[in-house]
Design brief:
Its EC number is 5.2.1.8. GO terms for molecular function: peptidyl-prolyl cis-trans isomerase activity. By secondary structure, this protein is of the alpha+beta class. It has a single domain, classed as Cyclophilin (Beta Barrel). The protein has three helices and ten strands. Strand 8 and strand 9 (164-168) form a beta hairpin. The longest helix has 14 residues, at 2-15. It is globular, with a radius of gyration of 17 Å.
Length: 181
């Protein structure tokens, strides 16, 4: 009986541990990302590495497509690419889907190429999920506060700049990222 009570106490203490939250401050407003460490441990660890080293500060949302997504974290205000840590393994098979307000790792055509860039889904993007688009794009969190700020990004005029399309005419910069929990 005593072992059962200890096991139950451990279960409740583990399950009551809050997921990490990251506050993202931008030049047009703030939003909060609830990270899913349980389902996407590699992506969350990778994302937090950039949050903790401060290198997301001064980067911009360089690709914003209404009705699709807002992507950022990889380029500074002048569209110079930021240095990255080694790419991570794609966790798109984790069961999390690219639904409205979820946050996923951006990558190249190589499924295991994600580094620092991430995107926020502005709508349900089923075609980005593993089940529909093997290898898919790994979701690792969700905007739980301030999603209207991300939606506002999609209302800003965009242009083609530096060989990239859908770049906001006025840069939308990350001014601060803070780990809350």
């Amino acid at each position: 009986m005593k072992k059962l009570l200890i096991s139950l106490a451990m279960l409740f203490s583990v399950s009551s541990v809050a997921a990490p939250l990251v506050n993202v401050e931008t030049t047009i407003g703030n939003f909060t990302i609830d990270l899913n460490q349980k389902m996407a441990p590699i992506s969350v660890k990778n994302f937090l590495r950039y949050v903790n080293d401060g290198s997301y500060v001064g980067t911009q949302f360089h690709r914003v497509i209404p009705g699709f997504m807002a992507q950022g974290g990889g380029f500074d205000k002048d569209l110079n690419q930021k240095s990255s840590y080694k790419p991570i393994r794609n966790e798109a098979t984790n069961g999390l889907e690219n639904n409205t307000a979820t946050v996923a790792m951006a990558r190249t055509s190589n499924p295991n190429s994600a580094t620092r860039q991430f995107f926020v889904n502005l709508t349900d993007n089923d075609f980005l999920n593993y089940a529909r688009s093997n290898p898919g794009y790994a979701v690792f969190g969700k905007v739980t506060k301030g999603f209207d700020v991300v939606q506002k990004m999609a209302q800003k005029p965009t242009t083609t700049q530096g060989g990239m399309q859908d770049v906001p005419v006025t840069p939308i910069l990350i001014t601060k990222m803070t780990l809350v929990k």
